Structure formats: C-alpha cells, structure tokens
Fold each of these.
Amino acid sequence: MEFLEASETASPEEHRAHQESRLRELIRHAYGTVPYYRDVMDERGLKPTDIGSIEDLSKLPVLTKDDVRRAGDRLVSHSFNPKELRTAWTSATSESPLPVRWDRSVALMNHASYMRMRRWAGVPFGRPYATMQGTPVVPISQSKPPFWRHNPLWNQVLFSAISLSDESLPHYVRKIRECKAEMLETYPSCAYVMARFLEAKGEYLPLTCVITTGEPLFPNERAVMEERFQAPVFDAYGQAERVIFSSECEKHDGHHIFPEYGITEFLDGDGNDVPAGEFGLMIGTSLHNLAMPFIRYACGDIASRSDKICSCGRTLPMLGGLTRRAGDILVTPDGRMVPPIMVTWIVKFLEGVTNWQVVQESPEELLVLVVRDEPVRESELEGIRGYVSRRLGPEVRVRVELVPEIPRVGRGKSRHVLSRVPLVWGVPNRSSEPARLGGAP
C-alpha cells in the first residue's frame, strides 16, 4: 500500500523501469518453471534474455482463452506447492469459464490495489464498509436475518448477492446503517437494485461512496445510485486472471490503469499496437502471478489508451474508453434479484462448448442454449442443476437445449445472459447495449 501510494506520482520512466524489472524476473521464472512457456519460447528460438523490455513482448504470441484451455496444468509453475495456491474461475461473460491459479504475491497486490481505489474514494483502510459479493455468506435457504457476516480485521460486513430479495433488502439497509458503513462495494446490478428499492420506499442511505466492479456500469444506474446513496460512484475494472486493473479517481474523468499491477497493450486485429484514442483489444501481462503466469493474455474486452494527464495530478496512465457487455438481472421465484454473473459459471460443467446463452422467461425456469457437437450427458445436467439449485434455489427448473447457433448482437459479441422477467416494483430490466466509458464505440 505504501509503495502504491508513492508510485502515484512517479514519472512515466519510473513506471516503465519498474514494469520491465518485474517483466524480466517473470520471463526467467516462466521459462524455467512453466512447461507451456518453455515450449513457446523454444519453438521461437527465444531465451529469457531476449525479452527485457515492453517492446520485446511482441516476440511472444498472444495468449488466448483457447490456449489456456488447451494448456491446462502446463501453464502452472512447478515451483509452487499446489496446496498453497488458490483456484478461482473467470466470470465467463464472453467465453466458458477458465480455472485460474493464484499465489500469495498476486493476492497481496490485488488487495493493495483495491485499498488504493478505496482510499481514492475517501474510505481508507480501517474504516467501516460493506461488501455484497457473489459467493454465499449464509445458507440460501435462510429466510430470516442475519443475512451477513463480519470480518473484524478489515472492519467489513459481508453480504451475499445471492440472498438479495424484496424481503431481505430492508434488513440489508438496516444493517448497513447500524454498522455505520461508509462505503458499499458490489456489482453495479446489486447496488442498482438496492438504490431502486430505496427509491420505491422514498428513502436514502447516505454513504461516503459506492464502488462498483465485476460488471459494466450503465449511466442510468450511476444516476440512481448517486441520488439514493447521496454519494459518488467509483467504477473499477479487473479480471479473475489478474492481468489488468483500473479505477476511477475522485475526478471521475476515466479510468486510471495501475501500471504496477501489470503491463497493458492495445492491439488491432493484426496484432499491431494501436495509437492513443483508437480502440483495440486489451492485452494484459500480470507482473505478480508467478504460479500461473498470464503473459500477453487477451481478456476479450475492447478499450483505448489516452495520453491525457488526469486533473487529479496522478501520473498513472489513463484509459480513453472501455466497452463491456452485461447480461440482465435474474429474478427467482421467491423474489430475489440475482446478478447475471451468478449463472455464467454454468458452462464450466460442459465441455467443448463453442457458444451458449442462458435465457430466463419466467422466475421458475432457466433455458440454457448450447452450441456443441456432442449431446449433453446426464452427469452434466446434474452438475448444472445442482449449481442452479445452490445459487438460485431448488425450485428453479433448468432446461438445456442444443442449438446450431446463437444470434449475436452489436459488434458481433455474444449476449450470454438474457432475462425477460421484470424486476420487483415493476422496474424493467437493464439495456442490453454495451456499457461505455469515455466515448467507446
């Protein structure tokens, strides 16, 4: 945290020197302990000393999600004890989810980066705050409070997005007031649902700030949140792969890229760098995850870099724009409103899927459309049903259908979660258009 605070006003040359120092260490480690990278570099006649600068990264191929699937454990360093690593899954907003292994170093940098963002938002470490996350905090069958747990070391109260409902929301709001939380950190869809609940009740929940991450933030959502929470919204961007991290500062004039976290490239369809102001595929290299290095990883999102210097005075580089796509909020039979990210892991139970979509026509049923050559096995169905039961409730039925193709939208991207069920209080679901920052196309 001290390092990140001091680094905020470092010169571009100092940022670059730090990145390249860590890059050289990463390349040596990957070549020596990660079978996938040794094979890739040997095939190209490369030695670790051949990659010493950011420009030298172009000697390596882009790492795609299909590459990660095919490589499997060959992407994991054999210098770590597997029992000491954490396994996480990507959110699968554009592809089937991928398993990611983390070591302690990347976990520390990720926590410190979040703490930097919270400090920018006016809530430094140690101040009380609330988190609404995507994992269960209390049993899904629990119908009475408490719907939360405390983390006293961080002065944090934890809620689950899975338990969000018309019945639980009054208790959520009451608990946030009681614990004097200064900040709510959650998915945009969850903060939006809570803000619309407050609006319907004619109430406000004053906070110092709201931090949104994990999903696109739509302008209409931000407006409702800022009105009902009487606080600014700070949007952040990151991935389970831990290769790129960015966040708004108090000026809300775009996202700052965290150069200490990773190296970010912007490439066109031919793999060439795009100039500032032009949109390209974001390519990230994690500078901290030695357990499963992601070097030149294509995360699937489109963005542009900006040459402007933020009026906040920090010298961290800026994103010029960022385009992401979201699904819709799901509604369960008991009235809970579940963010779309909760069902994107369904596809991890299916192999060989080339495209997929979860469609909700009613609270009682989900239709999973799958494009693949092989029929769906009963064991796969059982895995999906069990997952949905744990996340949405046992009363939700699941149908899986094989289809030849799934229509695409916008710029050819897949829309993986589609709900046609209105939210409670008659609130319609969100737009299916991409979320945009800084004039993204």
Amino acid sequence: MQTSSSSNSQNSKKAIRRHDIDWLRVILFGLLIPFHVAIGVYWSTYGTEMNPNFEEISGEDRGEFAENNNDYTAESVTFTSMILHWMHQWRLAALFMISGMGTAFAFKRRSWKVFLTERCKRLLIPMFFGSWTMGFAGSVILGEQEMTLAGLTGGFLSGIIWRSLFFWVPIFGKLLALGHLWFLWNLFQYSVILIPVFHLVRNNPEGQLIRFLRAPFRIPMGIGIFILLPLILALTEIIFKPWYPGFIGVGYEWFWFFVFFAFGYVCITAKDEYYEFVENRRMQISILTLFWTIAFVWLRFEQHNSGIPYVDGGWLENNIFHNGMTLLACLIHSFHAWFWCLTIFSWAAHLLDKPSENLAYLNQGVYPFYIVHMPLTFAGLRISTELGLKNYPAVIIATAFVILTCWAFFEAVRRTNVSRFLFGIKPANQ
C-alpha cells in the first residue's frame, strides 16, 4: 500500500511537470544575451565608448551620435532596431508569466512559510551576491574604478554597502544598485504580495476564488482571454504610463509585469482549461498576433515621427496627460505583448512539451548565465571594438564570447553546493 501511494505521488508530480514551460524559460533567458549585446551596438545603451560602431562615424557627427539623434539609438526605426523593439515588448512579459506559472506549481506542495523561505534563498541571495560581484566587475570593465589595489578594494567594499542600502529606492535604486538584476527583486515582491491568494487557492481548490480566477477561460468565444485580460493590462498603462517612462521594471512596468505574473499563475490554476484554449485556438491566436504586430510597428513609427513616447510612456514631459492617441497606444502596446505571449505559449505547448536529457542541465544554467552575463557583455563589446568589427559581425562575435564565458562560469559554480546556493541553483541532491 505504501509503495502504491509513493508511486501515485511520483506519477502526480510527473503529470504536472510541463516541459514546454521549462524550455521557454531557457529560450527566453537565452535571448537576453544577444539582445543585450545588440542594444550596446545599435542603441549605445552602455555609452558610446562601448559601441563598436562609434569609430565609423565622422568626427563632426559624433556629437549628434552621442546625443541620441541618429540611427544608432533606442529611437531608431531601422530593421534591426525594430526587431529589438518588437522583442523587448513581450520577452520580459512572457518571463514574468512563466514565473507566475512556476509559482503555481511550487505552491501546491509547500506551505506559505516554506515558499517564502525558498523565495528568499532562490531570489534575494543571488540578487545581493550578484549585485555585489557582477556589479563591481561591470564597473571595472566600464572603467569606473581606480585600477589600484586600494582603489579596487575600496570600490568593492563601498559597493557592497551602497548597493545593499539603496536597492529598494523607487525608480533609481534598482537602476544604480541592482542593474540587470532588477528582475529578481520584482519577482520577489510579486511573490510576497500574492502569497495570501496562493494560500487561499491551495486550501480551497474548489472555492469561489478559484472559480473567479478560472472564469476568463469560460467566457464564450474567447472574449475573456482575447479581450478582458489584455484590457486589464491596458488599464495599468492608462493609469500609470503618463507619469514616468517604463524602464527596468519601474514606472508603469512594475504594475504591468505584476499583472503578467498574476496571469501566469491564473493560467496554471485554470489547469486543463488553459491548455485546451491555447491548443484549440492556436491558429486564431497566431493570426490575431500578426494583426497586433502590424499595429505595434505603426505605433513605433508614430513615436519616431512625432517625438512623443507613445510606446515608452512619460507623456507629461510633452505636456500630455492623455489624448486619443495615448489611449490607443496603451491598447496596442498591451494587446501586442499579450498576444505574443499567447502565441509562444500555444506553440510551445504544441511542440516543446517533451522531456530531454539536456533540459535539466540547461535549466540549472538559467540563473548563473543571467547573473554573470552583463559584465561579460561589456567585455564582449570591447573585444569587438578592438577587433574593428561593426554591426552584425560585432554582435555575433560578442554574443559567442558571452555565451562561452557564461558556460565556463556555470560549469565552475555548479560544482559545489556553496556556489550553487549563491547563484540560485538548487542543491545537487534535489
């Protein structure tokens, strides 16, 4: 009897394991590397001195280049920049949905106290350790540290202090103290805020709350998923977007990504209704996504031509709170991101829900790659610059360098339980 019970428990765990979600987590985090390399080349995100393309611009044009007024800026509508803009609108949103989905699975087998403890271990420890070490390494590569033993030691120790004290400060704290690791801090906040909901749903699996969460999947003609949920996303933009541009998960993005995280949790809570929906309506989702992509491209061109940040937000700087165009921009932006999430989840459920010997290994590498990739990105861009590479060759060589060095780093840190703990990898015996 005991053996049968144990076997049923193991089968139950296997039954709820979704390989497609694991694959998407690996793929979307993997896209982070070429994206961050490319925006250093085409948008000068890390400064003109880090941009391999900077030297090809004539001296008289460099001032204009540095002031973000030419094609190599975040406002560019060249083909490569538009690909980057398009990817940026849904990749992080999808990752927050995946995190919400993973939370739904995790909370089924944990009390809220155990869940909170694990969140601290898996999110806060890597966040602090990564900001102390990788933040410092990035500042060295960027030339922000005095290259003496005393200067480096002082810079490292003072960095630990101010990064630990100011990471929580709204808007600027995450940028200065956490840098690219802001994702972990947002994810921790979302997880803590929604613990009461997770707890109620687990303890009342057929209660009113879970029926309410499943309701969008039961509305006829897909209205709940195709219209109601993205309207909630658009509402967060309408309320918060005029005040401050969305950037590294602050401004309207904090609320916007919170909703995506919650929607990911809702999708798994809905169980078979969610998977039936994305499977049965996969082609319909894909066609609608194409429509919203065309709308987004049009909106990006409107932003470029008018100079008003319809996509990015912060319209009060243009003496606009809301008008017809800003309201339309909120709708297009949220519907575009939502439908791309639906598209990748529906096709992943169809094609990727398959076990693989490599998947567990790749999943372990997600956090180490994510934590260490940014200073290595700076190094890769400097190498491309030294080699005289431009444009796509610079992106390809820098990306290859970052992937190889991240992989070598991952192979090193996964060898001991201490380093695994510091970089968010589960212990080897789990």
